């Protein structure tokens, strides 16, 4: 399973990347990843006019979008619109960070799951 990520380089500039979560046969229920250590779970509703300029992620975390869409912009100007069902790994906890804004005048519902430092994908 592949998911997008935002990370920062040695100069503090953010970039998009991708990580692959390895899956293995879980029997009749399908494919499963290993169990990863997680910290806090945060539920969030973001207003339809949300437009948050440059900021680093407050923690290394996974963002699960349940409803609505948002555009994320990184240092080199690359932009991606993510919506319901998308997962984003936020690792740009230092440096310039990223921008995020609501799209299409939609409220966004999302869940953030902070990750233990030992978690590597």
UniProtKB/TrEMBL annotation:
This is Cupin domain-containing protein. Signal peptide: none annotated. The lineage of its organism: Bacteria, Pseudomonadati, Pseudomonadota, Gammaproteobacteria, Alteromonadales. It comes from Alteromonas profundi. It holds the Pfam family Cupin_2. InterPro entries: Cupin_2, RmlC-like_jellyroll, RmlC_Cupin_sf. Residues 48-91 form the Cupin type-2 domain.
């Amino acid at each position: 399973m592949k998911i997008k990520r935002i990370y920062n380089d040695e100069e503090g500039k953010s970039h998009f990347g991708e990580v692959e979560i390895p899956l293995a046969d879980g029997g009749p229920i399908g494919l499963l990843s290993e169990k990863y250590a997680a910290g806090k779970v945060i539920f969030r509703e973001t207003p339809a006019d949300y437009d948050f300029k440059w900021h680093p992620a407050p923690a290394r975390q996974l963002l699960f979008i349940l409803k609505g869409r948002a555009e994320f912009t990184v240092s080199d100007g690359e932009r991606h619109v993510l919506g319901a069902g998308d997962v984003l790994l936020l690792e740009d906890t230092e440096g310039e960070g990223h921008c995020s804004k609501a799209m299409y005048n939609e409220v966004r519902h999302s869940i953030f799951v902070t990750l233990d430092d030992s978690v590597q994908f």
